[in-house]
Amino acid sequence: MKYDTILPLTFAPRPGAEAWMRQFQDWLCHRLETADGGGHRFRPEEWAHGGGGGTTHTLEQGAVLEKSSVAFAAVWDVMSKPLAQRLRLRDPRYFVASLQAGLHPRSPMVPGAHLHLRYVEAATGEAWFGGSLDLTPTYVDVAQARWFHQQLQEMCGLHDASYYPRFKAGADAHFYLPHRGETRGVGGLYFDRLQVGRDGLFEELLAFVQDVGEVYGRTYGTLMSQNAGRPYAEPEKRWQQLRRGRYAEFSLTMERPEPACRCPQSLVLGLPPRAEWYHHHTPAPGSAEAQTLQWLRPGIDWLHAGAA
């Protein structure tokens, strides 16, 4: 079946989701600028796609953040037939509002982080939220990873006690490179489809997604401040480049298809500024690098990891 161009008024998307994502983009950029501390500002760039578009904010060569982007989009489009079949939708027309952030710090002692929040409304009347966030340290600081997960658990507990174990397990499975036998980092949260009506009222699900965004910005700002001044040398930098290679491998080979809501440069924006690959690279036994690899596996109880 051929579908005509979709106009915004064809749908009645919940305006609260789109309006909040716009506001959250500004809030997160301001918080990251403050934590970066170098006087650098995010540069906005508007773009259009089919029925809709968005604004991508980028900050490069900051005091702490070497490359970072926070992108908002609201798009009306038609999804591919395979994706519509996977989502079990009879009508492939959709609206999606999305907020995506990718943060790559200069120092190997500061972890990287990712966030993706989306609201999808199908022409069939179905609507749902999806989202993910994860922390990708070059060197795993167990105490900081434990604190990070404790913040996620506390936030999830304000909404549904089952959210943290469910979505933490989802992140363990999603952010995993099977060809490496490694997780991308220390995990976080991943929820693919919280459906309006089946899983809660729109307002309830939006409130949860808002708190996911808030805990991401708050915890990452804290981790930037705690780690930005830690010393490092060339060996740590080389290890960072190798771990960035793992991040790029995941982005290029493991990301799952979803309703498109990205600017044309989104893939490049999300990749680290530099990365390295080696055919054989085995860290020395007992080294900080070898210890980090021991933690990059699914199923770790981060709430109690390393606790006395």
UniProtKB/TrEMBL annotation:
InterPro entries: Coprogen_oxidase_aer, Coprogen_oxidase_aer_sf. GO terms for biological process: protoporphyrinogen IX biosynthetic process. It comes from the Bacteria. Transmembrane segments: none annotated. Pfam families: Coprogen_oxidas. One of its GO terms (cellular component) is cytoplasm. It is an enzyme of class 1 (oxidoreductase). Pathway: Porphyrin-containing compound metabolism; protoporphyrin-IX biosynthesis; protoporphyrinogen-IX from coproporphyrinogen-III (O2 route): step 1/1. Keywords: Heme biosynthesis, Oxidoreductase, Porphyrin biosynthesis. One of its GO terms (molecular function) is coproporphyrinogen oxidase activity. Its EC number is 1.3.3.3. SUPFAM superfamilies: Coproporphyrinogen III oxidase. Belongs to the aerobic coproporphyrinogen-III oxidase family. Homodimer. This is coproporphyrinogen oxidase.
